[in-house]
Amino acid sequence: MSAIIRRMIPAANLTLLYGHLPLEARFEAARRDGFRAVEILFPYDRSPEWYAGQLQRHDLRLVLVNTPIEASVAPWGRAALPGQQQAFRDDFARVAAVCEATGCAAVHVMAGCVAADDPAARQTLLENLSWAAGTWPGLRLQLEALNASDVPGYFYSRPQQVIRILQAIGADAAGLQFDFYHVVREGLDLLAELGTALPWVRHVQVAGSPARNEPDLGRDQLLEAFRRLHRAGYRGHIGYEYRPAGDVASGLAWADPLLELFSPQP
């Protein structure tokens, strides 16, 4: 088995890491900085074929997208919003078109802002996840807890809340998108949360807290969290989902202590 398969794989979040550049320039910049995998939050402002062409031109692989948002009605998604099931299905058809064109297999299903103890919201989310998993079985559905400081009112702000949803829906239908930044920003113990969440983790993201710039491995147990993730056998992607404080390429040095854990960049 190759080293690339046996290690964690960095993925540049084009929306945040290169958000200061025009959309067309982000792909080239990510490849120039050594990335082979990328995330895009909302790739819906161009055709799926346009995104596929950019990825192919720069030898990049899209590994994660979000379900669409709608500023006036569902600014943080709608998967858990009662009464919006048809809109969710319409949204997911757009997701599926992007994934089919680009080969992306993972989708962050955004739940939306609704009371965490609302039984109708929970049932709506479970039904929408079941429908999406059954309609597009080739896609990996992922749920992510978003901290209450940055996203007040989101349906879940703690990984354990997400895990309860996953336990109800079943491991084959969806998994956990575990973001170090959101866990720390929520004021939780990163190592404890990671230990509980490991069986459910399908994708990992990282940023420094609280400013969401480059991570500092000397703070918030980040270095030990990466080591524990590696020891546990996680071999998926690590999404660099932060806004650079300065030059992107120089800022990537934060990850140098992790080189023995990460797949080598070309």
TrEMBL record:
Gene3D superfamilies: Divalent-metal-dependent TIM barrel enzymes. Residues 27-255 form the Xylose isomerase-like TIM barrel domain. It holds the Pfam family AP_endonuc_2. InterPro entries: HyI-like (IPR026040), Sugar_Epim/Isomerase (IPR050417), Xyl_isomerase-like_sf (IPR036237), Xyl_isomerase-like_TIM-brl (IPR013022). Keywords: Isomerase. Belongs to the hyi family. This is TIM barrel protein. The lineage of its organism: Bacteria, Pseudomonadati, Pseudomonadota, Betaproteobacteria, Burkholderiales.
